[in-house]
Design brief:
Helix content is about 25%, strand content about 25%. By secondary structure, the chain is an alpha+beta fold. The protein folds into 2 domains: about 35 residues; about 90 residues, 2-Layer Sandwich (protein ne1242 fold), CATH 3.30.1880. A 4-stranded antiparallel β-sheet has the order 3-4-5-6, with helices on one face. About 5% of the residues have low confidence.
């Protein structure tokens, strides 16, 4: 059996190399399992529900989970302006677009809702999904 030496005091054997490779492989296999077992990140201010009056319009928003119940830090946003649904879309970079303005993105759901209110102005209302068979969503006077 031959023994190589990296330095004058540390012998390197095949057994030592195999132990190192097996330990590295085990760490690579177990890392996703350990990471998945950690609790999710704590809710930040961007994940919290909101209920406010902005420029005279009532904005209400909360995240919903799979079952439709309120959830913090996960699920989709359910946002209404004066009781009518405002549909938000999540972009790949984490920002939001609203059905009112598809050309600008906003860092949070609340910022997108406020921008929609600014775009609507004082007289326009969001059109509900149940609008008279037109199939269009968006705003109307």
């Amino acid at each position: 059996m031959s023994v190589s030496r990296v330095s004058s005091t540390v012998p390197v054997t095949r057994r030592g190399v195999m132990h190192g490779l097996l330990a590295s492989a085990a760490a690579a296999v177990l890392a996703p399992v350990v990471a998945a077992s950690w609790p999710p990140h704590p809710a930040g201010p961007d994940d919290l529900p909101f209920d406010e009056v902005y420029h005279g319009r009532h904005i209400l928003g909360a995240r919903t989970g799979v079952s439709g119940r309120a959830a913090v830090g996960g699920g989709e946003w359910q946002v209404t302006v004066d009781g009518r649904p405002l549909h938000l879309m999540r972009r790949a970079d984490g920002s939001y677009l609203s059905m009112v303005d598809h050309y600008e993105s906003y860092p949070t759901a609340l910022a997108a809702a406020r921008a929609a209110v600014d775009e609507l102005g004082p007289s326009e209302q969001l059109r509900g999904v149940e609008a008279e068979g037109s199939g269009h969503r968006g705003v109307h006077a």
